[in-house]
Amino acid sequence: MATQNQQICMVARPQGLPKLTDFKAATAPMTVPGEGEVLVRTIYLSLDPYMRGRMSEAKSYVSATGIGDMMPGGVVGEVAVSNTAGLAVGDFVEGYLGWQTHATVKADHLRKIDPTLAPISTAVGVLGMPGLTAYFGLLEVASAKAGDTVVVTAAAGAVGAVVGQIAKLKDCRVVGIAGSDEKVDYITGELRFDAGINYKTTDDLDVALRAACPDGIDVHFDNVGGPIADAIMRRLNPFARVAICGVISQYNATADEPAPHIYRHILVNRVRVQGFIVFDFAARHAEAYAALGQWVSNGDIKHKEHIVVGLENAPQAFMGLFDGQNFGKLLVRVGDDPTR
Ligand code: NDP
């Protein structure tokens, strides 16, 4: 077994889009697990847009990563050394362990994964944080119900693809907005969304939305914010619900952009707009894991992964989230996956 732990740290706060020089590889000795702890070998590191927020000092719902600190992140790994009765060597676990090859961590900070249910990587994807986000954002925050027209942005991504598929299972009309023809073909073909719009090639998003949503929009699951969200706002029906999940178009902004004033649309249509964070529903995660697990094992929800190999390639892959280079849940394979 390796004795040195490889990490990737943030060495500068990005101004705008992150650059490779904002990150640096570091080495730290591995620590021996104390009582109640395990040493986890990282197999998959999840790369997620929220990490851009952690790199910034702007006010948020959690504190910023310090300069020189390891980048934070969700991990699926294998227990390499155990000093607790609850986990054995060879067990697969998921936890918030950061951009590193190994982590010594208390066992009660980990979720044990059953590798017979689904590929272990899904524990940071459709059967992990992004799946939970889709589930609670759509069904609780946006109160989606049969007959609603649901529009979801970043629709081929980790969260968006699950949102659209749950909405289809709930008998909604689903329209996805994504950044390439390949992604639009995927959501309308394999995932059976009713319509898709490539926002990068559409001349007029208002016209495209009118065609795709002839009866208006009842639910907007917003992953991107910015001008796309503004256009969707103009097509909302009375009593529509907007779940603000993410605003990825703004994460690298260095100044506030001028935007349309949306209050009038909210008022005249009596729209409910609510931001949310997946952890708001922590007390109910078990319910969502059960529902998502059932849908995945039945084949009702499909998932796609975009896997980059090697921890050293994490910064470049992370940067690609901001121009749509990932097609599916973005993961880094840091170590061998014995289940594949
Ligand atoms: P994705 O897998 O969807 O990857 C991000 C995608 O965003 C890219 O592939 C790209 O797709 C799209 N994108 C990037 N820049 C822009 C832009 N300027 N305008 C429009 N689209 C853009 O990521 P996730 O599914 O993990 O996350 C989606 C959103 O959900 C993010 O905003 C994230 O912060 C948020 N989120 C919120 C959570 C919460 O608790 N509130 C929890 C998890 C995620 P394309 O090619 O289509 O442009």
Q: How would you portray this structure in words?
A:
The chain is built from nine helices and 15 strands. With 340 residues, the chain is of the alpha/beta class. It has two domains: 4-125 and 303-333, Quinone Oxidoreductase, Chain A, domain 1, CATH 3.90.180.10; 129-279, 3-Layer(aba) Sandwich (Rossmann fold), CATH 3.40.50.720. Helix 2 packs across helix 8 (285-298). The structure holds NADPH dihydro-nicotinamide-adenine-dinucleotide phosphate. NADPH dihydro-nicotinamide-adenine-dinucleotide phosphate binds next to helix 2 and helix 3.
Could you outline the blueprint of secondary structure elements for this entry?
Elements: E1 4-10, E2 23-29, E3 37-46, H1 50-54, E4 75-82, E5 92-95, E6 102-106, E7 111-113, H2 129-141, E8 149-153, H3 158-169, E9 173-178, H4 181-188, E10 195-198, H5 205-212, E11 217-222, H6 226-233, E12 236-244, H7 263-268, E13 272-275, H8 285-298, E14 305-309, H9 314-319, E15 329-333
Parallel strand pairs: 8-9, 8-11, 9-10, 11-12, 12-13, 14-15
Antiparallel strand pairs: 1-2, 3-4, 3-6, 3-15, 4-5, 5-7
Helix pairs in contact: 2-3, 2-8
The site of NADPH dihydro-nicotinamide-adenine-dinucleotide phosphate has 30 residues, from helix 2 and helix 3.
